[in-house]
């Protein structure tokens, strides 16, 4: 499913710019279809900011540091790291200036999930079928995209 970037909810909060890519959080809902209670949020800070997100998010959560760094207590974490919170109430952090992070999480699944490249399913056979479908270029094309990426 392709959703134009302009359709995604954006807002400023606590000195940072937020974009809700998928799911529901902060009283907002993304137009991206999802099949479980989840959130995927881009957070960007030009000047650096302290954030307390624990009251706004739910379930399991993780934070991917795309650019810059994040301070959690006395610890500094650089880009390329993923931080996992055992409880969403623990999601208090400080973004360094010029930082961009992705916060994602939601209610845990009741069944095990399998991940292979861009395919996620509770059924390994469905992932194998998706591989075949990908090789045969049977997925809908994204508007404006001309490049085809082969399976890894």
Summarize the structure.
By secondary structure, this protein is mainly β. The chain has one helix at residues 124-135, and strands at residues 10-13, 16-25, 28-29, 38-45, 49-52, 60-67, 69-72, 75-78, 82-85, 92-95, 99-106, 114-116, 119-121.
Question: What does it look like?
Answer:
This protein is mainly beta. It folds into two domains: 5-106, Jelly Rolls; 111-152, no CATH class. The chain has one helix and 13 strands. Strands 1, 2, 3, 4, 6, 9 and 11 form a seven-stranded antiparallel β-sheet that branches. A four-stranded antiparallel β-sheet has the order 5-10-7-8, with no helix packed on it. Strand 12 and strand 13 form a beta hairpin.
Task: Please describe the structure with a list of short key phrases separated by commas or semicolons.
7-stranded antiparallel β-sheet; globular; 43% strand; mainly beta; 2 domains; 152 residues; 1 helix; 8% helix; 13 strands; 4-stranded antiparallel β-sheet; Jelly Rolls
């Amino acid at each position: 499913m392709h959703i134009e970037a302009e359709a995604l909810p954006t807002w400023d909060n606590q000195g940072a710019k937020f974009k809700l890519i998928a799911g529901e959080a902060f009283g907002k809902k993304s137009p991206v279809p999802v099949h479980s209670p989840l959130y995927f949020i881009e957070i960007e800070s030009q000047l650096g900011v302290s954030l307390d997100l624990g009251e706004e998010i739910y379930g399991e959560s993780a934070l991917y540091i795309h650019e810059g760094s994040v301070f959690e207590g006395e610890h500094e974490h650089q880009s390329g790291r993923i931080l996992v919170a055992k409880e969403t109430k623990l999601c208090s952090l400080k973004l360094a200036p010029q930082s961009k992070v992705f916060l994602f999480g939601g209610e845990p699944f009741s069944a095990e999930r399998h991940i292979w490249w861009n395919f996620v399913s509770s059924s390994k056979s469905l992932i194998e079928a998706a591989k075949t479908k990908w090789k045969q270029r049977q997925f809908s094309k994204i508007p404006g995209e001309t490049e085809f990426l082969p399976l890894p």
